[in-house]
Amino acid sequence: MERRIENSLVKLIWCVLVSLLMVMRYVGAASSRPTRINSKFNYYGEQLRRNLLANGLGMTPPMGWNSWNHFNCKIDEKIIRETADALISTGLSKLGYIYVNIDDCWAEIARNDKGELVPKNLTFPSGIKALADYGIDYLKYDNCNNDGTKPTVRFPVMTRALMKAGRPIFYSLCECMMSRADMNEIYAELARPGGWNDPDMLEVGNGGMTKNEYIVHFSIWAISKAPLLIGCDVRNMTKDTKEIVANREVIDVNQDPLGIQARKVRSEGDQEIWAGPLSGYRVALLLVNRGPQRYSITANWDDLAIPAKSVVEARDLWEHKTLRTKFVRNVTATVDSHSCKMYVLKPIGVASSRATILGTGADDKLNHNNQPLRRNLLANGLAETPAMGWNSWNHFWGNINEDIIKAAADALVSSGLAKLGYIYMIVGVNKIVMRRIYTCSKQMPGSLGYEDQDAKTFASWGVDYLKYDNCYNDGSKPMDRYPVMTRALMNTGRPIYYSLCEWGDMHPALWGDKVGNSWRTTGDIEDTWDSMISRADENEAFAKYARPGGWNDPDMLEVGNGGMTKDEYIVHFSIWAISKSPLLLGCDVRNMTDDTLEIVGNKEVIAVNQDPLGIQAKKVRWEGDQEVWAGPLSGYRIALLLVNRGPWRYAVTAKWEDIGIPPNSVVEARDLWEHKTLTKQFVGNLSAMMGTRTEGLLGKLICVLLSCLMVMAAASSRATIMGKVSNTKFHHHSERLRRNLLANGLGKSPPMGWNSWNHFWCDINEDIVKAAADALVSSGLSKLGYEYMIVGVNKFAMRMAICKLRMLHFHPASKLWLTMFTATGLSSGYTQGVDYLKYDNCYTDGSKPMDRYPIMTRALMKAGRPIYYSLCEWGDMHPALWGFQVGNSWRTTGDITDTFESVMSRADANEVYADYARSGGWNDPDMLEVGNGGMTKDEYIIHFSLWAISKAPLLLGCDVRNLTKDTMDIIGNKEVIAINQDPLGVQAKKVRTDVEIWTAPLSGYRFAVLIVNRDQWPANVTTHLEDFGIPPRTSVTARDLWEHKTLETPLVGNLSANLDPHTCKMYLLQPIS
């Protein structure tokens, strides 16, 4: 037995209850050792990560077995040995299943006198060493029974301990967040070789699903690059189970060295298309049918990033055969209920010599000056406050008829709810009745293709509300599909509230305000606490897009349907109200209990929802299970909600600084659930002891059971407080408060300069910095605006610069350095004095950056010298959402590396936050790599163009002492720099993504346009000028900013360009008539 173990590739992992899982290995062949991480995958601060966890493991997702799903605590060493034998005898270990994970219940509850873990003598009498040959290769660190500290603080402690052990140990963080396929897919962009998203173990073979369902399970885990950890009893696997988990072709997709997790590129009701790139210019494709009947599912090339006219070969990974048919433009398959089809697609040619890529793009969805256009598209004058009413679906589903609807309408009137504002009756059914309608059904014709006709019909019937669902659509993009109905409704001449029920798939909050009066930000809600609170979290991310006329919709209210406690329903109603969500009742209003009527009829809470200021609340502080939500109201008031999600009682405190109230203000608070103004007045903060979901707790300021406190805070009568109540975290008119915190007058345009870090790292000295400063002057770059010199090392000095000042690591020599530079000075007219502070994020004390960075803000303001303040927080806590109150720029991404993949991923991540950039505060996707040698000239042109049009800081990261002509041509392009420094200061967005088109408005009614070809194939691109917000018959001059010439013929209607692989075209458009 021991010899078999020694010769196997199998490794061993286990767990203890005190938040610890470990792995020990069986001695294996050298070939089982993974290679070191390639710098190609240095995403999100890989350099720092490698310093912290440089173990070279996890180059592909781990594969193995885990005891928990099948055995729970009923384990012993005999089972473990037999499992190890089974992995070898079945051949699974040769396929890559090399880890054997003992999950829990293997150790005694108490450590020995030396503090060491002790295996249970009854079940593991030989000890763990006898099983694992004394070597640990894998540690799974669990989250249960922890001490309440933040996982971001707690997990790195073990990281450092493992690195000190001197042995490469795979480190798996089991932080117990929501898992499974859908939630795991959200984090796809963060997965890469060396670090993988883990939606939990495989259930294949445990008997709870059909064979086809297990095939879907295994396929999704494989294409998602999830760890493949078998959770069944491998000693007794059926033929079907082994056939699934041993599918070499599917395993190859999971273990592909490119290491990119697949995404859902399209979902239509129960039909889903998952896709992800593979090495060798291949694509993994998974067609999934979640529904109860067979479907024909089509994947279009534009969904899969395959050029439109490519001829593609497809291999079926479950049938193990290459299909005879060669596919052009799309591939279609009939998929049975709860089944899937999985293919590897490989382009083998093109259908014709021309590859024209045409499309309507994203119409006006990213036009920054969109309010007039939005009103032209949807000028119905409705939804000045969130809609209120009733929807039949949550309670009745399809079991609905005219009598129920009439009785529900009567109930709204007789209960007094109609007088409170519940005026809309929405029928989620296969018939059209009454004055409002819900459209979409298997059994009723949809409106797709009949928008004008149906809109006229709705108007003729007196319909006031249209909820337009997303099921059974034609696969077209919702941002193209929904506006068709918008225009149809506007043409009827009747104001009809237009609700977009797109389920949040394509983030309608980003484009819905031009199309509808509200838009679903989430999937369907269920009558459970977990479902409700998750919808609240998802919806809160889009708070800034809500406003009078257009609202975020996290789905209907479940209050009164019986799945939650009264106090949970109070939390539910409170969050929906403060979030300015539509208040659409989903219960049987004919038979409401007193508790339900008390909740949904709370006038004071409804008044918060219907407040005319119309600003959605946000979570301004959260610490574990304690949350503080706040949002400004009209009349210099604030709505405050304290929530305890957890199983323990907590004292939850809202600080004035979190909610935008000056620190010494005296505040009066009214409890909206107790309906009384508190006798105590508050200064500095407001606290309340919060109960749990399972215990009652009495008190003036809390609600029993799952406690939440909702108060409206009003500033005192002192005039000095008026106008300063609303925090910029949730107040749209934030500049005044922001300037109070950081009134340094800097950053009116993105900063330009040089940073030593990317090229020199810590190999820096005074001579290099002086020479770099001289080079900026002698090359003429300083005259173009490159004026900041940033020394990226643990010392600081110089004219306009301060180094990457390491958090909590002021170097003792820093004063000496400053003295040295002050004494010797710098040539070419540089003077002394710090003008720029880049404040880094490493070696912090674990406090939140939104608490930590403002301390330096205040310190800088007290210094009496204007100092540009750059927040280098790596984008971890989304500093774009709060950084504009604190600094002049903020990093939105991890560290960049000198590769095309890294540049494009940083550009994508940075673009998400485009709306937060403005004069005085800029999104920062990290320094420029132009000139460092890792990319071609054309790729560097794309890099510089993206940074310029994105209004990113232009901070050179190369050795400016030795610039090549190509590098100088790129970074010295005056016309492209002018785009970056344009005084309008609006960051560009992508308006098309098939071949990428970025655009931004400029001062003087001009437009910057960047067309990028990321692909390996040439592209002929034509786009409509309407995509940029230019009226369709407008004549436009176009200047090519890299060719430095104006096109001879003005453009009308369209712009076309031919692009080679990894090239771009950048234009300045000027309408002339």
From TrEMBL:
Pfam families: Melibiase_2 (PF16499), Melibiase_C (PF17801). Its EC number is 3.2.1.22. Residues 1-29 form the signal peptide. One of its GO terms (biological process) is carbohydrate metabolic process. PANTHER family: ALPHA-GALACTOSIDASE 1, ALPHA-GALACTOSIDASE/ALPHA-N-ACETYLGALACTOSAMINIDASE. Belongs to the glycosyl hydrolase 27 family. This is Alpha-galactosidase. The lineage of its organism: Eukaryota, Viridiplantae, Streptophyta, Embryophyta, Tracheophyta.
